Amino acid sequence: MARLTVRAGRELVITVPYVSDLNAVEQFVIKKADWVIKKIKYFKRFRKSVLMVDNRKEYLRYKEYLRYKDKALEFAKERIEYFNSFYNFEFNKINIKNQQTRWGSCSAKKNLNFNYKIVKLSQEMADYIIVHELCHLRELNHSLRFWNLVSEQAPNYKDIRKNLRGKEL
What we know:
With 169 residues, the chain is mainly alpha-helical. The protein folds into two domains: 3-44, no CATH class; 68-165, Metalloproteases ("zincins"), catalytic domain (Zincin-like). The protein has helices at residues 22-31, 33-44, 56-87, 123-135, 144-153, 157-165; strands at 3-6, 12-15, 94-97, 104-106, 112-115. Strands 3-5-4 form a three-stranded mixed beta sheet, covered by helices on one side. Strands 1-2 form a two-stranded antiparallel sheet. β4 (104-106) and β5 form a beta hairpin. The longest helix has 32 residues, at 56-87.
């Protein structure tokens, strides 16, 4: 008659024949409530370690992320060390992320974050992203002072930005 499934994202799925009596389905779910709660609690333990993907494209992107993240972290550390020898900014952590819309970011806590795809860019574009985020350690905005800092190590940053806009994330 009816089947209950609790998914890793703690979603409840009820599978019933098309012509089922809704009252009977409701009673079935109520009867299984303890089991549902037990399963939801079970999956709650794995909240951060369970990957939920809705489609093949997301799955392939995640696999690519796993393949490139260590290389991207090594690259980012090396280039930050190089450019920061000029700037001498203090920062906390360097993170590699699987972002859909950003090449990089800098948090108020001075954490530098980069998209794993940075290693698939040209050296010039990747270096610009590193410099851009490093400069946010001093200026957490896009003021004239910020762009002046960027231009010290990436004088042609306007052209690079223009070319970067056409790159798929």
